[in-house]
Amino acid sequence: MCGIAGYIGKNCAEKQLLESLKLLEYRGYDSAGIAVQDKNKINITKTTGKIIALENMLTSTKSICGIAHTRWATHGAPTYENTHPHLSNDSTWAVVHNGIIENYGTIKKDLISKGYNFKSETDTEVIANLLQQQNSNDIHALINTCNMLIGSYALACINKNIPNKIFLARKKSPLYVASEQGEVFIASDPVCFLSKASEYYTLADNQYCIASTKHLEFFNTSGQKINLQPTKTEKFDISYQKHNYKHYMEKEINQVPAVLNNLIETYKSADLLKKFDKNYLAKFNKIVLIGCGTAYHAGLMGARYIQEFARIDASCHIASEYRYCNPIIDNKTLCILVSQSGETADTLAVCELAKAHGATTVALTNVLYSTLARMADEILPVCAGTEIAVASTKAYTAQITVLYMFAKQLQNVIANKKENYYEIVHKLAKKITIPSPKSLKKAVLEVLASEKVFFIGRDYDYVSVKEASLKLKEITYINTAEHPAGELKHGFLSLVDKNSVVFALATQQHLLNKTLNGAHEALARGAKVIMVSQFNIPKEQTQGFYHTVKLQKFSEELLPISCISFFQLLAYETSLAKGLNPDQPRNLAKSVTVE
Length: 595
Ligand code: M6R
Fold this sequence. Notes:
alpha/beta, 7-stranded antiparallel β-sheet, Rossmann fold, 19 helices, 3 domains, Glutamine Phosphoribosylpyrophosphate, subunit 1, domain 1, about 35% helix, 8-stranded antiparallel β-sheet, about 25% strand, binds 5-amino-5-deoxy-1-O-phosphono-D-mannitol
């Protein structure tokens, strides 16, 4: 959802900023731009398209101070005019922004009535002009401007008359700053300076900063100086190599066995689930899981596991819905917030809400320095390693594995059992294999030839097909839908015809025949049915089906963890066959930091 960066130092600002933008591209790739201070003016280079297009336009200059942006369009199409940085009318201020200004319409109207012109349709351009209107060169220009804004923002601003200083503000969008040996690095994600700085500062909401190579000065909303404590950078393990894989997504799917091993190692060595003991659980009468997209699906699976194993009332909700539905939540609620990035705006909002209602919050996140990790009372690390492809794969598998172990831990505590869940997952990690592209060919060809792709399943399998369907639509742009296999006759069947392919997933013995019934109902309407299961289904029951995919055998409760790689790879291979870039699907971004 847009990435911002800043640099002041001894090196070429454009070069440094470009490096940061490349690392922030996961946050949006609609357009990109850089503004640098050059004597008494600000030079802007910007373009629509990906960072590579910007790189081709840049020439090295002597400038040592600048700001940069990679955009995921919210207000205004991804055009040149709407590309950041934005300048104030008098070209004094340049601004980059991550977030959404909700009252920009009113502000814009007011500024126009005062004679200001606007070149873009963005909400951000009002900020540059509000700064100009302040007619001040100190932090109050930015504080007064922000006081007029409703919404979310991480801002980095430069002024042509204030050399080698960058003004920063934050509200509900991440912003980090580091200073090391005469260089200042600013970014939406500390990954941009992990190799360059030994420590960094995290701006909290309503905090401001004036960054220069001499010092980082932090301020509160009253303009008083405040002290912030730095965080050391060493603890992050980031890998940006694709190794022999064509895409990050392919690499990340194939990393699953290693991820599971690492996860068990981490949990077992520190006995991370031990704290969820009888005393801990005694405080709660329900568990609420929250997430968006794939993280929501992981939460759904977690809720099923908790209900199944521990017999505790557990439910999962979409964060953007839950925050506005007047939820019943209090100090007897344990709220688990599932988020790969730990920066998803709606999930953070629910965390805040849950805390305000007295609930205990747990962050199930892959990014231990994220806002969510800092905000929640407890952290359950996902341990999947950096996930770069926009489509979440290994993080989903790791999230449901952690939730599986968590649910087993609760079961052990509640039912006085001693099940060694580490051992169970360890065996799974040793045995699990990722399907080969060849084994997927038939399914891929059928998906490519079909107008509609449907997924059906029940119970655990319904959760898995929800994720399968999201993955396929996300990176292939094929219109897909998922349905509980028992619901088909209540509406869905009217969509089914000979141009449909239906994937039927059945991994639970007691539901196998039920799902087969659904598959036959689709077959009878002309659909091509692809049955996906670990069972040896008698031939008579699959007669007429187009294809049967045999899954690796594991216990039914582990199948949600192991079966998903088939669907992830199906999406990946289909995307490749369509000539698309699976790592960067159109209109999407990895981290959704706006509501
Ligand atoms: O970082 P988060 O897990 O909070 O992200 C939530 C969703 O935006 C994310 O899972 C999205 O649905 C993925 N692109 C799906 O592959």
